[in-house]
Fold this sequence. Notes:
Elements: H1 3-12, E1 18-21, H2 26-31, E2 39-41, H3 49-59, E3 65-70, H4 71-76, H5 79-87, E4 92-98, E5 101-102, E6 108-109, H6 118-125, E7 129-133, H7 136-147, E8 153-158, H8 173-186
Parallel strand pairs: 1-2, 1-3, 3-4, 4-8, 7-8
Antiparallel strand pairs: 5-6
Helix pairs in contact: 1-7, 3-5
Amino acid sequence: MERQEAIDILAEGRNGAISVATMQSVFPWQEAGQSETLHVDASQCMGSAASLGLGLALAEPDRKVMILDGDGSLLMQLGSLVTVVAAGPSNFYHFVFANGFHQSTGNQPLPAQTTLDFAALASAAGYRHTMKIAEAEELIERLPGIWNLEGPVLIELSIAREDGPARWTGVPMSKQVASLKAQLASS
């Protein structure tokens, strides 16, 4: 499936969740109109989306938190999987956009690109639920049920390679953090 296709499905089915996007999911999430409310980008801290999402999930246990992570980004901080499990947030939903490349830095292939299995890694780390979804129709069908699962949950989304330059939004993370803090305080 295409990244924007998956982003649009997740945006439509967001269900009021706090969102954390990183790397090449940031720009399409913004284009889908999802970056103004209950959102923060982890764009200047590659590999840290799960850790940032974990902090939000622990601070806001009554809200669902969705992480829009990249496979190359998560690979840089695989230890975050066991950290998430140790904390055990039931409101943690980790979507990994897996295309097998470090897209943000020029589409270099990931090590073990053809055998890497993030759902299996998360399951071995102790995530309560893991799954792989390859088709948009399956994501549409399964998303409502995913929100009913007790976290932590990891969903590996098979995403087509995107050629062309990396896309960046240029929105300062500090501005988004301040906005998110204000939104959470007022709700």
